[in-house]
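Quick one:
INPUT:
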């Protein structure tokens, strides 16, 4: 794990290197796969395949609503999370449902549940975010059973997550805090970066860049990954 000391007195900000308008209603999660971005809509349950500039290249319809996160496993399957139903859902690349896993846990409000998901290619484990009340990083085994739950206390909420193989860490975005956090396996923040994005909902990493989707602005923001 990358060793890094978090300095709460150090104010760090990221400015986007590019910004693109999205023709996607309520983008709520984003993942990188096979040279494209895949953006899920909270409004209509559709997964949009786009270029790295947000241009729509294809659509994958699903029967699910209230979708908040998306990732890919090492077999090219899609995994999405339904906040309202508190489910982790496996799809093939055509949108056919392969499995639905109910995730146990505390959820005090309908709109404060599962909010993000990412896959760890080396261990085959999944990591989920619970948005708030409580804010949690949930680690799942290969069999999709809860191994560990880490309480998070570094932001107002957590709204998106991705795994960075190069840095061996997670990037977590917060809607309420308007910030990106570099986080270790224990849910501890290593660095915090404020971003000029309203309601950031999803984050993906590729080629030394961070891609963030904004629900409120319907935009894709691209940031250079901080060194």
């Amino acid at each position: 794990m990358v060793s890094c000391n978090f300095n709460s007195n150090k104010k760090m900000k990221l400015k986007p290197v590019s910004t693109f308008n999205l023709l996607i209603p309520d983008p709520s999660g984003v993942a990188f796969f096979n040279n494209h971005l895949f953006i899920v809509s909270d409004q209509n349950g559709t997964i949009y395949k786009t270029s790295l500039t947000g241009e729509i290249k294809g659509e994958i319809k699903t029967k699910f609503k209230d979708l908040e996160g998306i990732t890919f496993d090492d077999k090219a399957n899609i995994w999405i999370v339904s906040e309202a139903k508190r489910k982790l859902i496996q799809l093939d690349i055509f949108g056919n449902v392969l499995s639905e896993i109910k995730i146990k846990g505390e959820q005090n409000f309908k709109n404060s549940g599962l909010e993000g998901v990412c896959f760890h290619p080396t261990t085959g484990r999944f990591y989920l975010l619970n948005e708030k009340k409580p804010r949690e990083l949930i680690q799942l085994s290969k069999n999709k059973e809860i191994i560990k739950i880490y309480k998070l206390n570094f932001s107002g909420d957590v709204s998106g997550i991705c795994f960075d193989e190069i840095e061996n860490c997670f990037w977590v975005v917060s809607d309420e805090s308007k910030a990106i956090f570099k986080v270790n396996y224990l849910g501890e923040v290593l660095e915090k970066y404020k971003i000029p994005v309203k309601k950031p909902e999803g984050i993906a990493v590729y080629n030394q860049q961070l891609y963030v989707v904004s629900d409120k602005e319907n935009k894709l923001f691209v940031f250079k990954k901080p060194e």
